[in-house]
Design brief:
transmembrane; membrane; alpha+beta; five-stranded mixed β-barrel; 32% strand; 3 helices; flat; 2 domains; RING-type E3 ubiquitin transferase
Length: 258
């Protein structure tokens, strides 16, 4: 009986740990949801005509090429308005020599401005500081034996036919093939894609609206709508705020059995 009680206690302690993580995630989701709900939504035309721009604004618009035209992502050669590149090195531990470790090498994104348009007008988005959610993963490939590049925007040689495919390319067996090498991933925002954005509006030199972010509070951009984001946050809140109390109750019962 003692062994059974100890096993139950260990299981419930594990559940409490999981519940605590879900509680923390729920708190993050709640904060994110409240930010969404407290920030006013504006048509781009209304922002353009405003005598005084709001401190913060949310817009729903289509992404389009900026003043420098469309970008081409370095790995999949996909035309886009924004891209992010991630390179992770899979290598043996320097200490043990027989355990594979994953070390991030690059996590970069494009900074070129792009245009946002809706039926009422347009604005420029400068993504110097930006967090993009639900961007399209267009390249995901593990290269066995690859050495981390010195420049993430100059990818290693790709097999013929892969570049420009425009779809996720995968070559992974198990968890990164359990082999030294590098994983190369790439996400993009496509031209014409409808995006939700929360940012700080400013006036450009030409008087037009420029949407920007800062280091402490970057732009939030998502390919999901505000309603979809709020629903996702509420789901996390329900799970997190329920899981931890239930786990704690189970722990009390397990301790009483002991």
């Amino acid at each position: 009986m003692d062994e059974v009680a100890e096993t139950l206690q260990l299981i419930t302690l594990l559940l409490v740990g999981v519940g605590a993580f879900l509680w923390w995630r729920a708190m993050q989701a709640r904060s994110h949801r409240l930010q969404l709900q407290m920030t006013p939504n504006y048509p781009l035309g209304m922002l353009a005509e405003a005598e005084e721009l709001p401190a913060k604004a949310e817009v729903l618009a289509e992404a389009a090429a900026g003043p420098e035209g469309l970008l081409t992502s370095p790995y999949s050669q996909t035309e886009c308005v924004w891209f992010r590149v991630e390179v992770v090195h899979h290598h043996y531990s320097d200490e043990s020599g027989d355990r594979l470790e994953l070390s991030p090498v690059f996590d970069l994104h494009s900074h070129q401005p792009f245009t946002l348009t809706d039926v009422t007008g347009s604005a420029l988005c400068r993504p110097h500081w930006i967090e993009v959610e639900h961007a399209d993963l267009v390249h995901d490939r593990f290269e066995a034996g690859a050495v981390p590049p010195t420049d993430a925007l100059s990818p290693p040689h790709l097999d013929s036919g892969e570049a420009g495919a425009g779809t996720a390319s995968t070559k992974v067996a198990g968890p990164a093939a359990l082999t030294p090498g590098c994983t190369f991933r790439e996400w993009v925002v496509h031209p014409g894609e409808r995006v939700f954005l929360r940012a700080f509006p400013h006036r450009g030199d030409d008087g037009g609206v420029v949407l920007m972010g800062g280091e402490e509070e970057p732009i939030t951009l998502s390919t999901h709508t505000e309603q979809e984001l709020i629903r996702a946050d509420r789901s996390k809140e329900v799970v997190g705020f329920t899981a931890l109390p239930v786990a704690l109750v189970l722990l009390v019962f397990a301790l009483l059995l002991g």
